[in-house]
Design goal:
The chain is an alpha/beta fold. It contains 8 helices and 10 strands.
């Protein structure tokens, strides 16, 4: 299987001088094309920092990140921005939407930069994604008039508009109730089954149990890795228990 993301000996720090704090210590990892990988660990372990490093959202002190056979360090800032916009999709705990635009317009806004002459096709695609996501009836709704789960679905639709090779998700269910979280995970599984690579940061064992591989971090390092079978919708409780047991082992290190 082709390697979609390769991180080699990544070091990342914040601050300078006596205030300098190393957040990632020579971290190396690989994510294959079509894989669903979750990243877990206690607060401050470096989970989100690793996601930002592997996606080029944040620079690194040393090491190398290779995305789809392209070294991110070889790209100029505008080239890196284009790569993220065209080949990556991002989903965060709180989707950033413009209050002056309705749901549909928020979904299509980033794509219009590249597709100004194809507005009708862009809108058609957005409506198709909204239909698959269960929010087809909300396209004219103000973003303040929808639930957190509905807004997150809209954020996922927006992330899929450019047919990205990878979706990076940072605590995408962190602000949702359990029912909405389950719905979002079903949507992510559908996206992954259609071939999109997923890297998801979470503190929730239930969320991580939907993945096929879990990287567990502590103190800026990947200290363990748990491999699961492809999730088929069955035995979720057993998978959650397996993840929980592994996390408890890490806590004792």
């Amino acid at each position: 299987m082709n390697k979609m993301i390769v991180g080699k000996n990544i070091v990342k720090s914040f601050g300078q001088g006596n205030e300098k704090q190393i957040v990632l210590h020579n971290v190396s990892t690989e994510i294959s094309e079509g894989e669903f990988v979750a990243v877990m660990g206690p607060s401050g372990s470096g989970k989100s920092t690793l996601l930002f490093a592997l996606s080029g959202m944040d620079s690194i002190d040393s090491g190398e990140v290779i995305f789809d056979n392209t070294k991110l360090s070889s790209l100029k800032e505008d080239e890196l921005s284009d790569l993220r916009r065209l080949k990556m999709g991002f989903v965060f705990q709180q989707p950033t939407m413009l209050k002056s635009l309705n749901i549909l317009d928020n979904i299509i806004l980033p794509t219009m930069r590249d597709q100004r002459k194809n507005t009708a096709k862009v809108i058609e695609k957005a409506r198709g994604l909204m239909q698959k996501s269960g929010i087809a009836n909300l396209e004219k709704r103000d973003i303040t008039k929808v639930s957190g789960g509905q807004l997150q679905r809209a954020g996922i639709c927006r992330a899929l508009m450019q047919d990205p090779k990878v979706i990076f998700a940072d605590e995408p269910t962190g602000a949702l109730d359990s029912k909405s979280a389950k719905d979002i995970m079903k949507l992510f599984l559908d996206i992954n089954q259609r071939g999109t690579t997923l890297m998801l940061v979470t503190h929730d064992a239930m969320v991580a149990a939907h993945s096929e591989r879990i990287l567990i971090m502590k103190d800026g390092r990947i200290v363990s890795e748990l491999r699961l079978s492809k999730f088929d919708g069955e035995n979720i409780n057993r998978r959650v228990e397996e993840v929980t047991i592994q996390m408890r082992k890490i806590e004792t290190i």
